[in-house]
Design brief:
alpha/beta; Rossmann fold; about 30% strand
Amino acid sequence: MLEFGCGRNKLPGSIGVDLNPEATAADVIADLNRPLPFAANSFDEVRAVHVIEHLDDVVRAVGEMHRVTRGGGRIYLVTPHYSDYSSWCDPTHRWHLNSFSFFYFTSLHGQHPWYTRLELREIKTHVELARIWKWLGIGLLVDHSVKFRRLWEIYLCYILRGKQMEFTFEVVK
């Protein structure tokens, strides 16, 4: 497993990659905005937890994750939802994403995206909401109904704010 931005809490058995040698448990120090120092199809799983929102180019970064993950492997991303305070208060965040931001990499209606040939298949999308909205069942609706999630993203997310999002994708090659 390849793990980006692992800080001091790298998962056992993973290869950690980070930019900061002073504050990390990373095995490899590398600029995550550049091509990764790994051969194509090297990993079964790539994890980027609170990393993608800091990078220069989301499309290029996901492309590199796709390149180093074997076909059928998994990419796991966690990032703040753009309606959450934490998305905007960190001056190192370059991107403010929503639960549909990564649809760009999925095949919609049998067509591939215009600017990349890589493809991901969505396995799971989870949007973390405040406890009260989870208790009232809004979280279940957001997680289990794409139509409701779209309604929530367009009309409700600034009232019933999202916190963070977790995505699991299968790499299609």
